[in-house]
Amino acid sequence: MRITLVGSRHFGVTTLEMLRKQGVDIARVVVAQADDRLATAAHVAGIEVTVQADPKRVGSAEIAPGTDLIITAHSHARISKGALAAARLGGIGYHPSLLPRHRGIAAVEWTIREGDPIAGGTVYHLADRMDAGAIAAQDWCFVKKGETARELWERALAPLGLKLLAKVIDDAKATGKLRADPQDEQFATNAPKLH
Fold this sequence. Notes:
Layout: E1 2-7, H1 9-22, E2 25-31, H2 37-44, E3 49-51, E4 57-58, E5 69-73, E6 78-79, H3 81-85, E7 91-95, H4 107-113, E8 118-125, E9 135-142, H5 149-175
Parallel strand pairs: 1-2, 1-5, 2-3, 4-6, 5-7
Antiparallel strand pairs: 7-8, 8-9
């Protein structure tokens, strides 16, 4: 399994570490900024790093040749149709909500704001509409009373994301494909950035 990882920050680094333990070939890491900690971790591991020409979009030229799967980990860039077509299995990302609930950049914050007693995470297929692609894996967790968004992310949702991504990769290695259950649009809610 040959992976191009697109991401940033701490979750990008922990995803890189998880992928290395999974024994996949990380062909390239794509970052929006050259000084991102994910770029540093990739350089240390001897993995090729590409800086996006456009921080809001990943083009096909930025995907490593022969990529089987694109994985996004804390990336706010859109993965172009051309980039998805350049990977045999397309692309997946992790979203810290039970999609289709809380689509958007502030999913964990909206989970807390709405008083949801249950949170969760979803590995989904990257698609034209944000966070709207088919579901490859999903799991849930309880939200503690009084917990902040950051506490929920660090305690439960980030570790859940790594677990779900590893599961999807294992399944893809075993079967050569990805599960794809369509999201039920009647339950979709948005989680725009809070001001």
